[in-house]
């Protein structure tokens, strides 16, 4: 997205991709909202598997609360083929004028004093340098480029989820909804079901890393959940992906002299839902636009590039921090409180899902748990 918008506005753009194929391997639940697509110039395409009506939130006792897709957050609207989506973005960027260098890994940054001047890379084992007026780090959850440039991207384990997902066939999934299961079945996170087609779904889990010892434990939680749900226990696993997801506040600084960081690398994933596609693309457009402006102005200073920092924060930061605070609270709740919370929500029809409306529903149905949410009042 950043490459597309920088190229559209006249900058010469080179995208460095460490793998031989854009979009692979997939590390994504493959659910995303859709209202933001026109804002960044994306047209729905063949990468869409399903359009869903909304989400269902299941309490530990499996009381269910249904919400429409507009209120459901960053992961509900479309279920997609993420590799196909990423390839579509790459085609858009290439058509706008961006060039791609595949099977090429960044191994360091070039600096003169505090100014980033490009990257040191390797392709097929051969090292070389790429010089650039502006370097953009879009290297995901495990980002190193920002750190090499002196930008802090470290986060504590309580702000990370360990995630694992199976693609399963021969399951009984409802293609109208994305489903989410809360409570101790997934400590500090949730189990998700994203339907891909009739009988085919992504079944995954995110568990707060501070609550487990590693990926094997996350897998055990998911396998245990599947074993207890006959609609999925009878299914067959045909694919498995895993990795880490940040559930933290965004980085405190996303620009420095000659460099900007964007997307997962800048901790722009929604801390409550774990969804990052929309935020990454929205920030990517701002980043690409500012990159092109800096090239045309001949100014690559932090002072100039901070226009990007101000831009994405104005658009995204308030919700990211609000949802991080909500995540912090939800991670402390017992199954009993989750049951009462979802019970309260399931008995009212909310036109808009907001903290105020949720707390009103809780006060009306289960006033005895209102003190659990005192800091949000």
**What do the pLDDT scores average to?**
92
Q: How do the strands of the widest beta sheet line up side by side?
A: 5-4-13-14-15-12-16
Number of domains: 3
Which band does the percent of strand residues land in? 25-35%
> Stretches where pLDDT falls below 50 for ≥5 residues?
none
Task: Write the CATH fold name of the largest domain.
Answer: FAD/NAD(P)-binding domain
CATH class of the largest domain: Alpha Beta
Number of helices: 9
Q: What CATH architecture of the largest domain would you give?
A: 3-Layer(bba) Sandwich
DSSP helix fraction: 25-40%
Strand tally: 18
> In the CATH hierarchy, what is the superfamily of the largest domain?
FAD/NAD(P)-binding domain
**Oligomerization:** single chain
Biggest sheet architecture: 7 strands, mixed
Principal-axes shape call: globular
Structural class, judged by helices and strands?
Answer: alpha+beta
Rg computed from alpha carbons, rounded to a whole number of angstroms: 21 Å
How far apart the termini lie comes to: 38 Å
* H and E order: HEEEEEEHEEEEEHEEEEHHEEEHHHH
Describe the structure.
This protein has helices spanning 2-8, 82-96, 145-148, 215-227, 230-233, 277-297, 302-330, 335-346, 355-365; strands at 14-16, 31-32, 48-51, 54-58, 64-68, 78-80, 99-101, 104-112, 115-123, 126-131, 135-137, 160-169, 177-181, 190-197, 200-208, 236-246, 255-256, 259-261. By secondary structure, it is of the alpha+beta class. The protein has 3 domains: 2-50 and 75-155 and 250-329, 3-Layer(bba) Sandwich (FAD/NAD(P)-binding domain), CATH 3.50.50; 157-246, D-Amino Acid Oxidase, Chain A, domain 2; 332-376, no CATH class. The strands form 5 sheets. A 7-stranded mixed sheet has the order 5-4-13-14-15-12-16. The radius of gyration is 21 Å and the shape is globular. The mean pLDDT is 92.
């Amino acid at each position: 997205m950043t490459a597309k918008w920088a190229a559209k506005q006249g900058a010469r753009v080179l995208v460095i991709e460490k793998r031989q194929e854009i979009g692979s391997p997939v590390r994504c639940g493959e659910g995303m909202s859709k209202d933001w697509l026109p804002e960044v110039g994306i047209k729905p395409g063949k990468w869409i598997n399903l359009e869903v009506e909304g989400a269902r939130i299941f309490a530990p006792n499996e009381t269910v609360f249904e919400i429409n897709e507009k209120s459901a957050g960053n992961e509900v609207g479309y279920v997609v083929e993420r590799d196909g989506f990423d390839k579509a973005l790459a085609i858009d960027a290439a058509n706008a004028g961006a060039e791609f260098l595949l099977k090429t890994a960044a191994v360091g940054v070039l600096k003169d004093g505090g100014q980033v001047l490009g990257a040191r890379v390797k392709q097929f084992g051969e090292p070389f340098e790429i010089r650039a007026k502006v370097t953009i780090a879009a290297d995901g959850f495990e980002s190193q480029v920002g750190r090499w440039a002196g930008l802090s991207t470290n986060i504590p384990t309580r702000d990370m989820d360990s995630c694992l997902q199976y693609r399963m066939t021969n399951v009984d999934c409802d293609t109208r909804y994305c489903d989410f299961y809360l409570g101790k079945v997934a400590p500090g996170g949730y189990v998700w079901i994203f339907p891909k087609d009739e009988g085919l779904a992504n079944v995954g889990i995110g568990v707060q890393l501070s609550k487990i010892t590693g990926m094997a434990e996350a897998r055990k939680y998911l396998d245990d959940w599947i074993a207890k749900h006959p609609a999925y226990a009878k299914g067959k696993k045909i694919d498995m992906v895993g990795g880490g997801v940040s559930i933290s506040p965004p980085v405190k600084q996303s620009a420095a002299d000659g460099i900007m960081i964007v997307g997962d690398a800048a901790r722009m994933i929604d801390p409550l839902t774990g969804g990052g596609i929309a935020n990454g693309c929205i920030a990517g457009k701002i980043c690409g636009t500012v990159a092109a402006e800096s090239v045309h102005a001949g100014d690559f200073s932090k002072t100039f590039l901070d226009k990007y920092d101000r831009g994405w924060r104005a658009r995204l930061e308030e919700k990211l921090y609000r949802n991080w605070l909500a995540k912090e609270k939800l991670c402390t709740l017992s199954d009993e409180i989750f049951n009462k919370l979802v019970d309260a929500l399931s008995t009212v029809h909310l036109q808009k899902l907001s903290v105020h409306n949720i707390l009103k529903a809780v006060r009306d149905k289960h006033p005895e748990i209102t003190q659990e949410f005192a800091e949000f009042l």
